[in-house]
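Example record for the data management plan.
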Amino acid sequence: MTMSKKWWSAGSAVTLAGGLLAGCGGTGDDVNPAADTASNGQASASEQTQAGGGQPASKVKIVFGQGADQTDGTKKLVEAFEAKHPEIDVDVREFPNDSTQMHDQLVTILGGKSPELDVVNLDVVWPAEFAQAGFLLPLDRYIQNDGLDLSQYLEGGVNAGNYNGQQWALPRYNNSGLLYYRTDLVKEVPKTWDELLKQAEELKGKGGTQYGYVSQGKQYEGLTVGFTELVGAYGGTILDENGRSAVNSPEALKGLKKLIEIYTSPAVPSNINTFTEKETLNAFIEGRAVFARHWPALYAQANDPSKSKVVGKVGIAPLPAGDARSAAALGGWLGAISKYSEHPKEAWEFLKFLVSEEGEKIIAVNSTQTPTYLKLFDDAEVQQASPLFASRDFVNGLKSAVPRAITPDYAKISGLIQVEVSKAIAGQQTPEQALANLEKQIDQNAAK
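Corresponding structural encoding:
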């Protein structure tokens, strides 16, 4: 089958409407009846028109929106789906990998009730917001009709897509933060953030490195993740069980002070405030950093001889602990259907394939994203893609990762955190002032 696919970027196609955001954070089946009937020379129902004497209609085209994929995973995923569904063409629309920018662009598109997207990738913290805003199609009827067993998936990913008792999104891949380190330089893996900072400063410059530690310090969602992890490590939390601010606490203050100490340390790049996952990855695999905080997908790339200068010298460990514990944030992405899609049935077929055993395996093997379909952790090819996937400790750790708040106000709260924490790191305000501002602003937004 010859594939002719349009891959296009959303960066220049969307004019952001800042005020809009302020106004609103597997079945494993290998048999597809539509594909079978097509192979027997019979047109499937979706290939026939209601009028015109049953003449074949043109293919249905749907658009899948997600962050840019630097691997071949998405391409192979779409090819596999189209081979099973010759009546459906899938165009991939790439959004920025900066999740904050992607969020704002999706809010602009869906807030305008545009039908230009059919299936969308959502960060684990977006489903509640998008569902409350009326952007998504509820999936319960589709799940029930097709007998999709959600107990076969990582519970955290399923829960992230559930809001007000309804399922709005399905988990594609989940992950949690990890500490990466150079095994040729690090003799004893740091167990606490204090130990990490001490070693990062001492080992900086050894083995051709430039930095002791790299992480995500840019004013975007990655900074909120880092803040969440440090606050959790010292026993704090951002919201209480009622959705009110709990951030102005002694525990959260300890976490923020430690974050500031790390990000203003000589162990980190002087431009740490420009680092996203991409810059962090590049610094580590190019041999310029001793330690790095990143997601599981980095492991395979760091051991790929065609990309990495540190092959065979990569160790992984849980994130360091604070006074309370090690606290890695739950991350990952879910698939959902736009409420404004003009092809919801075809969109469901594609979404169902995305989270199927076959679909998640393609992404796990080719993009080294952690699957959510539990059976895949016992698959030999998946385990070969990344040793992490064969680790029971890693899989179990996903279930105990620190969740970011499941709230419709998440994007607003995250934006507030990014601004106030960035100011504190830059020395424009004290940590105490930052938390006092956050407490007031979070409660003001939650009250609306």
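Summary line stored alongside the record: Confidence is low (pLDDT under 50) at residues 1-6, 9-56.
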